[in-house]
Amino acid sequence: MSFINYSSREINVKLVYYGPGLCGKTTNLHYIYKKTNPEAKGKMISLATETERTLFFDFLPLALGEIRGFKTRFHLYTVPGQVFYDASRKLILKGVDGVVFVADSQVERMEANAESMDNLRINLDEQGYDLDKIPFVVQYNKRDLPNVAPAPEMEKLLNPRGLPAFEAVATTGVGVFDTLKNLAKQVLFELKKGR
Amino acid sequence: MAGSDLVMYEEEFRSVDQELQRLQTQANARVVFLVDKNGQLIASAGDIKGLDTTSLASLTAGNIAATGGMAKLLGEKEFSILFHEGEKDNIHISIIDRVILVVIFDQRSSLGLVRLRVKKSSEAFAKIFASVSEKSHKEKAGGKVSVSPFAEITDEDIDNLFG
What we know:
The complex is a heterodimer.
Chain A: E1 3-5, E2 10-18, H1 25-35, E3 45-48, E4 54-67, E5 70-78, H2 86-92, E6 98-104, H3 110-126, E7 136-141, H4 151-158, E8 165-167, H5 176-192
Parallel strand pairs in A: 2-5, 2-6, 6-7, 7-8
Antiparallel strand pairs in A: 1-2, 3-4, 4-5
Chain B: E1 6-8, H1 10-26, E2 31-36, E3 41-46, H2 53-73, E4 81-85, E5 90-96, E6 99-105, H3 111-141, H4 155-161
Antiparallel strand pairs in B: 2-3, 2-6, 4-5, 5-6
Helix pairs in contact in B: 1-3
């Protein structure tokens, strides 16, 4: 749910990174934070456990510039991926404008990926959203590891509708900005259609 | 998409700003700000220099969302008021319809005074946001096609955002 302030000429949109535990959601945000100019980013907030597992959410505000005289701010959030944090995931999804689903390409994580995708659909539905209708991008992360499933197989399992999908290695940044740019584009074009 | 986009028009924004300034003065607060339930900062008043208001807004919304979840588990609709006491600064958080009002105050004020002033301001804010909502509905119902500020954007506009 975007926020449009005609007085200060600002538009804020909320993007959420979703996926199973340890798939690379926080790593995506860390990389984006590292590579964004200081004047374009705010502080990154990470509410995490002592072992650096996301406990509630990560938050990264980006103020990338102006479009048609409107300052465009993207608020990036990640959800905690571990299964038992479902209550928190539901809360973070509130007011979402677009979702990145980060899939862990390791063969042994396919079931977790599928469960997380189902979980996303259910949680969005509870908020009144339809996963088939909102801006959505899939990221196949960890493509550098030796035990990864072939991308076409992952497509069949996780992205049967053939929505935009990107292979990535979030630790080195491969595919990270491509993913974000594509989602931002989808969200902004949705806004273009008006309300 | 669930919920309608929150749109802040110039006139209402001025009213919100004025009421925030009034509240900040009357409550002797350090800072007051309004946050949308999704974590977006709407407006602020007071000494915000050195304060990361963006992060505060996001964390406030997260706080309200988390305690809202707890409330539901207890059979409550929500906890409409939260108070956090610090050594130097305190935070009073209250829910007004779909926005969150945050008051940060120190020993120059008191919880009692803040609660009193917040209660008065809440009525004013509720009226303003009702008017925003009504304006938005009227435009839609009247068939007035609100032109999106992004009506003319192109792929290149978006590519330029990312450098």
